[in-house]
Amino acid sequence: MIPLGFYMSGLPDDKVKLQFELYQIHKSIGITILLLSVLRVIWRLTHKAPPLPADMPAWEKAGAKLTHYAFYFLILAIPLVGWAMVSTEKYYIPTVLYWTIPWPHIAIFDNMASKGAWNEFFDSAHEVLAILVLPLLALHIGAAFKHHFYERDDILAGMVPGVRPLGRK
Questions:
Q1: Which residues contact 166 (CB under 8 A, 6 or more apart)?
Q2: Has residue 164 been placed in a domain?
Q3: How confident is the model over 92-140, as pLDDT tens digits?
Q4: I want to staple 97 with a disulfide (CB 3.0 to 4.6 A). Which of 20, 28, 66, 166 is the partner?
Q5: Range of the structural domain that residue 14 is part of
């Protein structure tokens, strides 16, 4: 999504038809991510997370918890802010998910006088939040590999189906 977002927003003016199509698919995928993220949050609220290894240092446990909270925040905030950005655009361009399902704009923005200022804010926030995912994702992947290949615990096996623990050193 992030590469698509940067690509489509950087297209030249003579590629407006392609840009429109890419924006529609970007919005479709974004709303899908939002809906799946809501389901994921509901799942996490109703199902206990697997326990971390008992011998894991407290700072790593706190870091893992903070990272997960940050991910949950971002997977909800990024598409919500994108939806708000679309809802505050100067031109009313309907969102049609996957060229089939009409998706409404957020109604509270319909008659707002300062739509332009809000649109600029949401545009910047959407970009910043999307960029924040990248180092967080790198940290998460790095930590998972550290646990799998160095610590040889079953953290990665609990995250990725089919991965087997390597066994303790």
A1: 148, 149, 152
A2: no
A3: 889 999 999 999 999 999 888 888 899 999 999 999 999 999 999 999 9
A4: 28
A5: 2-159
CA distance 137 to 82: 20
**Which residues, in sequence order, are bridge partners of residue 69?**
none
Q: pLDDT digit string (tens) for 63-81?
A: 999 999 999 999 999 999 9
pTM: 0.87
Work out how many domains the chain is built from and give that number. Answer: 1
Region of 167 please: left (phi>0), alpha (psi -120 to 50) or beta.
Answer: left
Beta strands in the chain (DSSP E): 95-97, 101-103
Instruction: Evaluate whether residue 165 is within a structural domain.
Output: no
The first and second tokens of residue 159, run together, are: 């995250």
131 assigned to some structural domain: yes
| Nearest-angstrom CA–CA distance, 2 and 93 | 21
